[in-house]
C-alpha cells in the first residue's frame, strides 16, 4: 500500500534489509526557462538538476545504498540540440557524485536529443548491437532486469534503419492521426500507440523469457525496470509500453517477478496486478516546483520492497 512520505509500518522495520537501492525518474534537465507539458502541467527544467543534487546528497548521507537506478529521460526534448551532450554530461556529473554504481535506461526524451550510438556509451549501458536491455544481480536472492522500452521504436534509430521503418509503419496502422504524438480518437489502452512510446522487440522478449526462467530455477526474486509502465492500473493509457501485454504475458508465466518499476508518467502511480505483481510508476523530478523533491530509496527484503519516498514521491510498501 502507498504510505505518507517518510512513514513506514512496524513490519518494515523488523529486520535489516538485504540491501537498499536509490531511485529517481524523469530529470529532463535543460538550461531553458520553465514550461508546461501538452496537458498544461508546469515543468521546471533548470530546477530538476537541483532535485537530483539533493537526491545524491541524501543517498550518500544514508551510507548503505548499494546502487541507484535512473529511470530514463535524463534531459528534455526541448534542450537545444547543440547543447544536448553538454546537458547530458552535466546531469551525469551529478550522478557521478553518488557513492556507488548508477544504472541508466533510455527514455524518449533521451532519444530526442541523441541517437543510440551516442547515448549508450555516454550512459555506460551494457549493449549488443545498440540494444539497451541488460540484467544484474546485487545479491544471490535478487535479479534486476532492465528493459529497453524503445527497442522497437521510430525514435533513436536512423530513419532508414529496419527497426525505424517497421515501427513507423506499425504506428501508421495503429494511429490514424497525422501527428503521431497525438492519441486523439484512440480509446482506452489503444491510446498508447503514440510516437513518444515504443515496444520491446522480439529478441528482447526471448531474452526476457530466458532470464526469468533462469531466475525461477535459481529461486531468485526479480525486479523489472522500464522507462515505460507495464500496467494500465499504474499509469495513464498514453504512457504504456506498446506491447505491455506481451511483456506481462511472459512475466506472468514465472513466479520470480515481484515488482515492476517505471517512469514516464510524471504523476506516478501504483497498483498490484491479478498475479500479485506490484507496479510502481515513479513521480518525476522534472515537475517538482522549486524547493520540492521527488526521489527515494528502496529497502529490499526477502518478502517485500519498501520504497521510502521524499516529498512528492510517495512511499510505498510492496509485500509479497
UniProtKB/TrEMBL annotation:
Subunit and partners: Monomer.
Ranges for domain Calcineurin-like phosphoesterase: 20-267
Family matches, as InterPro entries: Calcineurin-like_PHP (IPR004843), Metallo-depent_PP-like (IPR029052), MPP_ADPRM (IPR041869)
Superkingdom of source: Eukaryota
Protein name: Manganese-dependent ADP-ribose/CDP-alcohol diphosphatase
Keywords from the named record: Hydrolase, Metal-binding, Zinc
Gene3D superfamilies listed in its UniProt record: 3.60.21.10
GO terms assigned for molecular function: 2',3'-cyclic-nucleotide 2'-phosphodiesterase activity; ADP-ribose diphosphatase activity; CDP-glycerol diphosphatase activity; manganese ion binding
Swiss-Prot/TrEMBL cofactor(s): Mg(2+)
UniProt xrefs under Pfam families: Metallophos (PF00149)
Signal peptide: none
Amino acid at each position: 500500500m502507498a504510505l505518507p512520505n517518510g512513514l513506514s509500518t512496524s513490519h518494515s522495520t523488523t529486520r535489516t534489509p538485504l540491501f537498499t537501492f536509490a531511485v529517481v525518474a524523469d530529470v529532463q534537465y535543460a538550461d531553458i526557462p520553465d514550461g508546461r507539458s501538452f496537458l498544461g502541467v508546469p515543468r521546471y527544467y533548470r530546477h530538476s538538476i537541483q532535485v537530483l543534487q539533493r537526491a545524491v546528497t541524501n543517498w550518500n548521507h544514508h551510507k548503505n545504498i548499494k546502487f541507484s537506478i535512473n529511470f530514463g529521460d535524463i534531459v528534455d526534448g526541448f534542450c537545444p540540440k547543440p547543447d544536448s551532450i553538454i546537458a547530458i554530461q552535466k546531469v551525469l556529473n551529478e550522478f557521478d557524485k553518488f557513492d556507488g554504481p548508477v544504472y541508466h535506461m533510455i527514455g524518449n526524451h533521451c532519444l530526442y536529443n541523441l541517437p543510440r550510438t551516442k547515448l549508450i556509451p555516454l550512459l555506460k549501458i551494457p549493449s549488443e548491437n545498440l540494444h539497451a536491455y541488460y540484467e544484474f544481480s546485487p545479491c544471490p536472492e535478487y535479479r534486476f532486469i532492465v528493459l529497453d522500452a524503445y527497442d522497437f521504436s521510430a525514435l533513436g534509430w536512423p530513419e532508414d534503419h529496419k527497426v525505424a521503418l517497421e515501427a513507423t509503419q506499425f504506428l501508421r496502422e495503429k494511429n490514424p492521426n497525422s501527428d503521431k504524438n497525438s492519441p486523439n480518437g484512440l480509446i482506452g489502452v489503444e491510446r498508447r500507440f503514440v510516437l513518444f512510446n515504443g515496444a520491446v522487440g522480439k529478441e528482447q522478449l526471448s531474452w526476457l523469457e530466458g532470464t526469468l526462467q533462469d531466475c525461477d530455477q535459481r529461486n531468485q526474486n526479480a525486479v523489472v525496470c522500464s522507462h515505460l509502465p507495464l500496467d494500465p492500473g499504474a499509469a495513464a493509457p498514453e504512457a504504456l509500453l506498446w506491447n505491455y501485454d506481451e511483456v506481462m504475458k511472459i512475466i506472468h508465466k514465472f513466479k520470480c517477478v515481484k515488482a515492476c518499476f517505471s517512469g514516464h508518467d510524471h504523476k506516478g502511480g501504483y497498483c498490484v496486478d491479478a498475479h500479485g505483481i506490484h507496479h510502481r510508476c515513479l513521480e518525476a523530478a522534472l515537475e517538482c516546483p522549486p524547493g520540492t523533491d521527488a526521489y527515494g530509496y528502496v529497502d529490499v527484503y526477502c518478502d517485500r520492497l519498501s520504497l521510502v519516498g521524499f516529498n512528492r514521491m510517495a512511499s510505498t510498501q510492496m509485500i509479497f
